[in-house]
TrEMBL record:
Coiled coil: none
InterPro entries: Glyco_trans_20
Chloroplast found in the keyword field: no
Gene Ontology molecular function: any one: alpha,alpha-trehalose-phosphate synthase (UDP-forming) activity
Top-rank lineage group of the source organism: Bacteria
Any single biological process term in GO: trehalose biosynthetic process
Family per record: Belongs to the glycosyltransferase 20 family.
Gene source species: Endobacter medicaginis
Keywords of this entry: Glycosyltransferase, Transferase
Protein name per its UniProtKB record: Trehalose-6-phosphate synthase
Length: 467
């Protein structure tokens, strides 16, 4: 079996007592079982020559973590400006939010090259390399340019835009060509994979082969959908246990019998938060009878505050939530509780089980694991209702949710009204259909399916693959 080398911008090193998030848990479990190296950014910016050029190595079981600092300039240009100011909105087709600066693109490519230089001496001949997400699109080509012949897989956690949208960024062809140095390129949905294949053909001149593969410069590249999964059974147990903990009890007491509508997101322009508040406002305006019977708790954990659009979002949400509360609130009831502080995984799981409605309305989302977690967290005897954006990758699997267009305030208001009035048998039927689609999936299964596909594509390229 090949040693697995995972490369991602963020690396979560499991430290004693700390519980890592979904993806880290999934990849850690995979690597702990087969041993591996996880390489990426340390999460720190510094101008110290040693910590920006020599990886800090930590061994944890059979997994080795190697991380480096970015310089302050790299952090600004590569992480803030290009990754999150250009690529993130581009991938989500929000081009009006996109900034572009040639200098940031150059810095982005330079960081991808520099990380490749640092990774190179850590690689072994039997490695299979799995690169993650939009920060590292240029890395497959950078590694090949340094003579790496190992199988390289790439997985994009975000959506992938149509060729027209993609062409709105200068040098789109270069970005696609860099990615085509991988052997396997994975996406969350078939739609994203199709958008990529169409772009690779139109913008970079790749030939589309039957079965979804691409051919360029005599090499075949496999393209496919690998929807990210959670561990539903484990999350269900966590939520059940958390429903008795003090955080959940305090929340329950504070609701005093009202129905809880819950949103849990990073505070990010793609999450549809402005539109979501507008939808809730529409509900309050048009259904006065519901007013004192519900509370909307929106957890919008602060994120990427160096990017202008995230600051504007924070200001807008503060203003909108203040206006909702001052217009509809009373001395003993507030319709909305907005907080920019995240909660622990256990606390959120407990809140989810308590919530009569899970409101998940991103403008666009690669997958959205919150939607899957909300389903897993429910009490099967008295489950809540998932309201889900039809533009989240998760909607392709969770069709039994109430699917909405996230920009339509009336549609959100109608769905909330419908969910608040929904009979228990209908809630149970819908929940059961949702649970059936996720209950046998696992994060580990997702990781394995990608790694197995990578091994297969490495073999078909005549690469060095050991099982
Ligand atoms: C999304 C991206 C991840 C990223 C995460 C948090 O889920 O797909 O790659 O790590 O957001 O964002 P941050 O900028 O804090 O890493």
């Amino acid at each position: 079996m090949n040693r697995l080398v995972v490369v991602s911008n963020r690396v979560t090193i499991p430290s004693a007592g700390a519980k890592a998030g979904g993806l880290a848990v999934a990849l850690n479990e995979l690597m702990e079982r087969q041993g591996g190296l996880w390489f990426g950014w340390s999460g720190r910016a510094s101008d110290d020559a040693a910590s920006t050029s020599k990886p800090a190595i930590v061994d944890h079981g059979s997994v080795q973590y190697a991380t480096v600092d970015l310089t302050h300039e790299e952090y600004r240009r590569y992480y803030t400006d290009f990754s999150n100011g250009t690529l993130w909105p581009l991938m989500h087709s929000l081009t009006e939010q996109m900034h572009f600066d040639r200098r940031s693109l150059a810095a982005y490519r330079a960081v991808n090259e520099r990380l490749s230089d640092i990774l190179l001496p850590l690689l072994r001949p039997d490695d299979a390399i799995w690169i993650h997400d939009y920060h590292l699109l240029a890395m497959p080509a950078a590694l090949r340019a340094r003579g790496v012949t190992a199988p390289i897989g790439f997985f994009l956690h975000t959506p992938f835009p149509s060729p027209d949208i993609l062409s709105s960024v200068p040098d789109a062809a270069v970005i696609i060509r860099d990615l085509l140095s991988a052997d396997l390129i994975g996406f969350q949905t078939a739609n994203d994979a199709e958008n990529f294949a169409a772009s690779a053909h139109r913008i970079a001149g790749a030939t589309r082969l039957p079965g979804g593969s691409l051919r360029i410069a005599g090499r075949d590249i496999r393209v496919g959908a690998f929807p990210v999964e959670i561990d539903p059974q484990e999350f269900a147990r966590t939520a059940e246990t958390a429903s008795h903990n003090s955080d959940t009890q305090r929340l329950r007491r504070s609701l005093d019998g009202q129905s809880l509508i819950l949103g849990v997101d990073r505070m990010d322009p793609t999450k549809g938060l402005r539109h979501r508040l507008a939808g809730y406002r529409r509900l309050l305006e048009t259904r006065p009878a519901l007013r004192r019977a519900m509370t909307f708790v929106q957890i919008a954990a602060e994120s990427r505050q160096e990017v202008d659009n995230y600051q504007y979002l924070r200001e807008d949400l503060d203003r909108m939530s203040g206006s909702i509360n001052s217009t509809f609130g009373e001395a003993d009831w507030l319709p909305l509780r907005l907080t920019a502080r995240g909660g622990s995984r256990d606390t959120i799981a407990g809140y989810m089980r308590e919530a009569r409605i899970g409101l998940v309305t991103p403008l666009r989302d690669g997958m959205n694991l919150v939607a899957k977690e909300y389903v897993a967290a429910q009490n099967p005897d008295d489950p809540g209702v998932l309201i889900l954006s039809k533009f989240a990758g998760a909607a392709r699997q969770l069709g039994a949710a109430l699917l909405v267009n996230p920009v339509d305030a009336d549609e959100i208001a109608d769905a909330l009204d419908n969910a608040l009035r929904m009979s228990r048998p209908e809630r149970q039927d819908r929940w059961m259909a949702l649970w059936e689609t996720i209950k046998d999936t696992s994060a580990l299964g997702w990781g394995r399916s990608f790694v197995n596909a990578l091994a297969d594509s490495g073999e078909s390229q005549g690469g060095r693959v050991q099982r």
